[in-house]
Amino acid sequence: MGLQERDFFTEKPETRAANYACPRCGRRNDYQVRWVRRTKKDRIPSGADERDRAMYTKLKDYLVRVDDTLTCKTCQRKFDIPSQHSIMFVEDIPTGLPVDDYDE
C-alpha cells in the first residue's frame, strides 16, 4: 500500500492578512485568515514504492485555507470567503494574498 499525501509534507499553521468586501454592507476590510502551510519534506519517507517516488518529484509547497467564513467588522454578519483561493501554491503567492472582489 502506498503512502498518503500527508506523509510527504510537514504542516505548519499560519495567519495571513486578506482584504475582502462584505456582500451585505459592501464595506471592505482587512481580515486575518488562517491557513495551513504544507512544505515538502527534504527526502522521501521510507516505505515508498515507485509510484510514490514519481509523485514526490512533482510535489510543490502549498497553502490550504482553514477558514471558510468571516464576520464583517462593520455589520457583524457572517459571509463566505470566495472559494477560488482555498488552495494556493507558495511559489505563486507574491507578498500576501490577492485582493478579492466578492460579488454575488
Short description:
With 104 residues, the protein is mainly beta.
Which key terms come to mind for this protein?
104 residues, mainly beta, four-stranded antiparallel sheet, two-stranded antiparallel ribbon, 1 helix, 6 strands, disordered C terminus
| Biggest sheet layout | 4 strands, antiparallel
SS class: mainly beta
Stretches where pLDDT falls below 50 for ≥5 residues? 100-104
Tally of extended strands? 6
The string of secondary-structure elements, in order, is EEHEEEE
Beta-strand share of residues: 35-45%
Average pLDDT, rounded to a whole number, is 83
Q: What is the rounded distance between the termini?
A: 45 Å
Walk across the major sheet and give the strand order.
Answer: 1-2-3-6
**Tally of contiguous helical segments:** 1
- Fraction of helical residues: under 10%
The radius of gyration is 17 Å
Apparent shape: elongated
What is the total number of structural domains? 1
Q: How would you characterize the overall build of this protein?
A:
By secondary structure, the protein is mainly β. It has one domain (5-92). Helix content is 9%, strand content 38%. It has one helix spanning 50-58; strands spanning 9-21, 28-40, 62-65, 69-71, 78-80, 87-89. It has a four-stranded antiparallel sheet, with no helix packed on it. A two-stranded antiparallel sheet has the order 4-5. It starts with 8 loop residues before the first strand and ends in a 15-residue tail after the last strand. 7% of the residues are buried. Residues 100-104 have low confidence and may be disordered.
